[in-house]
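Subject: sequence -> structure tokens, single chain

Hey, anyone have a minute? Need the predicted structure for the following. Not urgent.
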Amino acid sequence: MQIKNLLAALVCTVQFGHALALPIVSEISIATINANKILTDSKLAKEAVLKFQVDFSLRERELRILESTLKQKSTEIEQAELILSAEQLKEKQSEIEALGRELRRKKQQFFEDRDSRKRDDIQYIFGIANQVVKKIAERAKINMVFQDVVYANPRIDITVKVIQVMDSMPTNK
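Reply:
Had a minute. Here:
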């Protein structure tokens, strides 16, 4: 008997709630954006990627050269191990260890700088995108904009509009 009462109460609540919510729901306008698409398709994001590659390619090349030098010196010491004196061998091994420490330090600094720059670039792009989304939402009287939903009808996706507005803006960074 309790289940019947519970179901009856639920049906009444749903019907009553539906009647009250209907006018509110009809006034709500929603939209979605795809953040990944903004990060890959916008002019601002493409420029950031190019600048990032230019800024970090030289350092990456230096790391590869340092790695190559370390490998070469390691190979040389292995080949000359039998003809070097104990003192010479110890000196060469110390050089290789110092070079290895320098390489690890430079790699760690490179990865930290690279990751920090990526975060900064993404935050900058999303900062601009958020401003554009707010302007579009205000003009179109959109009540809510959801980011990265599982599914949305393409007619409520404003990502292309956001990218178009972002692309028309002058870049300051």
